[in-house]
Design a protein that fits this description.
alpha+beta; about 35% helix; about 25% strand; 6 strands; single chain
Length: about 140
């Protein structure tokens, strides 16, 4: 019985050693989602900054993953202004690692009054950021 057990152990060790003997090493994915020098996913962070580049930035925190814009008035609709907050929640490139919140105000007789933001507006911003982040990742893989 001992001889059979010893033979089985030696056989499994021999198989495991020969499995490690190849010269090929796995290639590193340089564009892996966790390659970052900041506290959050670098593709989502860069895509968020690119997407909001037309708005004045009030606060950015790359370690915490928060971008807050100042009020932005579209020249085509001067009686309306928007403020956006983007939060990158994770180091992974995933749709649920991104949160966008927007505030909207309208000018009524010289006073800025809070107004509802259409859900489609926030969803569109999230889609644009996620698409840009995927494009940045693809470009990093190619290069």
């Amino acid at each position: 019985m001992n001889r059979l057990l010893r033979t089985a152990i030696l056989g499994s060790l021999a198989l495991s050693i020969t499995a490690c003997g190849g010269n090929k090493r796995p290639q590193a994915d340089l564009a892996a989602s966790k390659v970052t020098t900041i506290g959050v996913n670098s593709y989502l962070w860069r895509a968020s900054l690119d997407t909001l580049s037309f708005m004045p930035l009030l606060q950015t925190d790359s370690n915490g993953g928060v971008i807050v814009t100042d009020w932005y008035v579209n020249p085509n609709t001067p009686a309306e202004r928007m403020k956006v907050t983007v939060t990158v929640l994770d180091q992974d490139l995933r749709a649920d690692a991104l949160r966008v919140a927007a505030l909207r105000e309208v000018n009524r007789t010289g006073q800025w009054v809070a107004a509802p933001v259409q859900a489609a507006t926030v969803q569109k911003l999230e889609d644009i950021i996620l698409t840009r982040a995927r494009d940045l990742r693809r470009a990093a893989i190619v290069n």
